[in-house]
Design brief:
192 residues, alpha+beta, 7-stranded mixed sheet, 6 helices, globular, disordered N terminus
Length: 192
Amino acid sequence: VDHRMTGATAWPPPEVAPALSFRSWLRTLIDGQPGPVFRLGEADRPDLFLHYIALSGADRRSRFHGRLRYEALLERSRVIDLGEAVVLARRARHRLIAVAELLPAPLDGAPALELAVSVCPHWQHKGIAFDLVQNALDGLRAAGDARPVVLYTQADNTGMLRICTRLHGKGDLLDGEYRFVFRPGAQGTGPE
């Protein structure tokens, strides 16, 4: 899928992004293999809404900290400021299968980014969330953004706990939820 046609921008920045071969593009389109990570643009808002409603009820409760009806999910997909936020995704065929949202949020009173990840049930446990988190951290590092990144996850989400540990996040258990902090601009932290 040529995301330049949808208004989406490359992520990570072109100097660190791998080139997408024609064969990879064709495999994504025909076989349903996951495509590369890309940054959502304005034209992708309907796909973001469809991704939200494709999540299981449990995944929506975990991602949004409650049960959201379709109207609330539609509003959420409309109000994200894609100029300020970085929303990364992967597609299989023509559908978003995973989304990572980097939104400004304070961390102990200082500027930071909150990273929220959602992966459609069929695509979970296949390394896709790892790729999104790693791409988000690498992209921030390449852009010179040294703000800390915070990711919250349920204590029973063992897959995300492994991802955060593998990518050198510092985790604290707060009110039954883990808060992992990544410092992309610091030497020796984050993915190698």
